[in-house]
Amino acid sequence: MKKLVTGATGFMGSSIVRELLKDGEEVKVLVRKTSDTRNIDGLDVERAFGDIRDGDSMRRALQGCDTLYYTAAFFAHWTPDKRLPYEVNVEGTRASMKAALDAGVQKVVYTSTNNTLGAHGPVPVDESAEFNHWKSGDTYSLSKYFAEVEARKFVPLGLPIVIVNPTLVIGVRDIKPTPSGQMIIDVATRQMPGYIEGGINIIDVEDVARGHILAAKKGRVGERYLFGNENITVSDYFRLIAEIAGVAPPGIKIPYHLAVALGYMFELGAFFTKKPPVVTASEVRIGKLQEWYDCSRAVKELGLPQTPIRTAIEKALNWFREHGYLPEK
After folding, report:
1. Contact yes or no for 169/208 (Cβ under 8 A)
2. Single pTM value for the model
């Protein structure tokens, strides 16, 4: 039986596809007619055309598949259309999980995010943490929280879902790039003069991909698994990126209230430039809360790999440099 991967053209999904192919699995990918397929071009996969919001196309794509790796999502902390994150993340989840239930798949690995567990300060929290971003104004976090709630509704109906919650993911094939990848580029090109102190958890994308496959094999239905590795302060993280890239790190620590104001200014400018803002006000609010996590359940129960974050940063920088996102040394 085949494995269906949604979001397969993206950063995380394309790594899952490659890991499945390494294991000798037959892989089907759901793509839209407008998808940028560079991340999967040349791979031995079957393509099914459709959209996660379209239950009929999902049911067709799931034919002949026993496992669904559901990684498709709207991943951006800013968009001029505030409805889009909810349409893709929440309505897409509802339609796709209904299709998976109808198709009788044996396992769904549902990709959520650490944002649905909230940010709770310097003491690392585990999968039992409760969402606390209600006042952040971050449409991505809110939409993913409601999407995970939708996914959970299908467990008592008989859909064998395992939920995985990756933290800040970095690494190779970040073609968009994602906000986490753009952060690395901005530090490496010295386009980020200042920073807002906070705490983050980092993990390599290929560890996350292997974790998905382990979750399909070993994960307990209805359970969450945090996919992360090292907790680090923002300033230390930026210093590490800068050290590896051979540049000076951002040197200005921006006060919180000024950072929020700058976030609003960047968002206003984004409406005119049509380019994502450097940082949003909601990202500043979340960052101040500190996103540190205890990811030991995934390591102990699933065997989640733990590539050192220095190595993950090196891999990301090398890939960005090789593909023209960064100048050659």
Report:
1. yes
2. 0.94
Return the CATH fold of 2-168+201-229+293-305. Rossmann fold (3.40.50)
Give one DSSP letter per residue of 67-91, joined into a string: EEEE------S--S-TTHHIIIIII
Q: 104 and 68 in contact (C-beta within 8 Å)?
A: no
Tell me, what's the pLDDT at 6?
98
Residue 15: is its pLDDT beyond 80?
Answer: yes
Residue 278 tokens, joined: 């450097």
pLDDT at 11 over 90: yes
C-alpha to C-alpha distances, 99 to 71, 119, 191, nearest whole angstrom = 15, 32, 44
Query: What's the pLDDT tens digit per position in 51-68?
Result: 999 999 999 999 999 999
Helices 139-152 and 281-289 cross at an angle (nearest 10°) of 70
The sign one gets for the Cα dihedral 145, 148, 150, 152 is negative
Delimit the domains of the chain by residue range.
2-168+201-229+293-305
**Cα(235)–Cα(240) distance, integer angstroms:** 9
Residue in the structure block whose two tokens are 């909601």: 282
Nearest one of 278, 182, 292, 279 to 226, comparing CA atoms: 292
CB atoms within 10 A of CB 67: 23
Q: What does DSSP assign to residue 193? A: -
**Assigned token pair, 6:** 């949604």
- Decide: 17 and 8 in contact? Cβ < 8 Å: yes
Measuring CA to CA, which residue among 59, 60, 66 is closest to residue 26? 66
pLDDT of 170-225, one tens digit each? Answer: 999 999 999 899 999 999 999 988 888 889 999 999 999 999 999 999 999 999 99
Structure tokens at 54: 């379209």
